[in-house]
Amino acid sequence: MFDMRLRLPELMAARGIPTAYALAQRSRGALPISTAHRLVKADGHPDRIDLATLDVLCDVLDVPPTELFERDPRREVSRKRRV
After folding, report:
1. Which domains are assigned to the chain?
2. What is the pTM of this model?
3. What confidence tens digit (pLDDT) does each residue in 4-27 have?
């Protein structure tokens, strides 16, 4: 598992975007509803994210890519235990 987490849930909440559908609507067609749903349903831990989607999320949420991600401290602790 990766230690990175997509901060999508809290960024959406801070901008008043309640659902995947609303996120897709704000992208004006650039983010398909199926992709938005997959990302929201993943609760911060999607299997993958392509650069085009990353670019759209940055535009819609008005953040640089560095603010979209963070290290997940819970996973970092579990990784340290394995060593």
Report:
1. 4-82 (1.10.260)
2. 0.81
3. 889 999 999 999 999 999 999 999
